[in-house]
Amino acid sequence: MTALEPTVIRSRDNAFLKDLRKLAQDNTAYRKSARVWLEGEHLCTAALARGVQPQCAVFSESYWPAAPLAWARAAERTVVLPDALFREISVLESPAQCGFLVGLPQPGAIAPDVATIILDRVQDAGNVGSILRSASAFGFRQVLALQGTAALWSPKVLRAGMGAHFGLELHEGLSLSDLDALRVPLLVTTVHQGDLIQDVALAQPCAWVLGHEGQGVAPALAARASVQVRIGQPGGEESLNVAAAAAICLHASSLRLRSR
């Protein structure tokens, strides 16, 4: 059977379907199975654009006749599910009716001298996904997530990342000692200390450290930073959302890089 000849699964007790449901609904199931579930046309398109070969393409029965032929050809296997079963898998309010099952990318060693993002216990999946998206947009290719950070390949982070995952080298579950591999300066933002970001000669490449939504960067990690900067807030807010702060910092770094 080729990928263009789909397997039709109609039983909710099917073993493949049970595994797929777990991947779609359990934030850390991908770690054990070394597979990731991508739901929706945008994520699937982004994966293919980066050269990812799906292990399996999954479609709802009503969508299958209109499914892109190239998607089925790209996958090693194609599965079609009754619409009701696809809805049971999805965690979206409006199920996308299509998805890919792909192998979990395995990162290599930490690169010591590339533009890097360090996530220190950033717990909100939406924030993490947004930061990954900004990282990809502004030329930061390595992300180091310390223990306590939201699972990088969880369904919510994937949706918030909007395909950015496939252009990044992602490391997670790291300890502080793992950062010893870096040979670039660490930069942190603070609310009241440091110079305004627009007045600082930002090093390139560098590693931006982004901390816990409530507690900020851990003191032991902040002590490693060579530069502390603050983002001016003339409107008077106490602080910025970490994803918003990240976008400002990474954009500032990208401007510095283009000016060299």
Polypeptide structure, described:
Strand 7, helix 7 (155-161) and strand 8 (169-174) form a beta-alpha-beta unit. The chain is built from nine helices and twelve strands. The chain has helices at residues 15-25, 29-33, 41-49, 69-74, 83-89, 125-137, 155-161, 219-222, 242-259, and strands spanning 7-8, 35-39, 56-60, 78-81, 98-103, 116-120, 142-146, 169-174, 186-189, 195-196, 207-211, 227-230. Strands 8-7-6-11-9-12-10 form a seven-stranded parallel β-sheet, covered by helices on one side. By secondary structure, the chain is of the alpha/beta class.
Question: What is the structure about, briefly put?
Answer:
By secondary structure, this protein is of the alpha/beta class.
